[in-house]
Specification:
This protein is an alpha+beta fold and 110 residues long. It has one domain: OB fold (Dihydrolipoamide Acetyltransferase, E2P), CATH 2.40.50. It contains one helix and five strands. It has a five-stranded mixed barrel. Strand 2 and strand 3 form a beta hairpin. The N and C termini lie far apart (77 Å). The mean pLDDT is 86.
Amino acid sequence: MAETTVNTPETVARRAEKVGLVISTKMEKTIVVEIEMRKAHPKYKRVMKSNKKFYAHDEQNSARVGDMVRIRETRPLSKLKRWNLEEIIRRSALSALAEEKPVAAESATK
């Protein structure tokens, strides 16, 4: 007897997710996300910080520098890209100011 498997959310393979800060958006449809990891030193037990950069695919170019984002592991998309932008958790205050500034500049010139 052959059983058929249905892909429900419970049976789909879990992909790794990470939360980090966007540090670069200079490429088309690609963002660079920096993840800060804290780990106790094996001998001295002092908490050490280490950073790692991940390249993630951003289809709509919606993320801005300074945003807190969640990325999910995916198939290799290019030489360096193995992650996909899942959601923007928190917008940066800097990106909000950059969007408001051009409107204020236009009204001042009229």
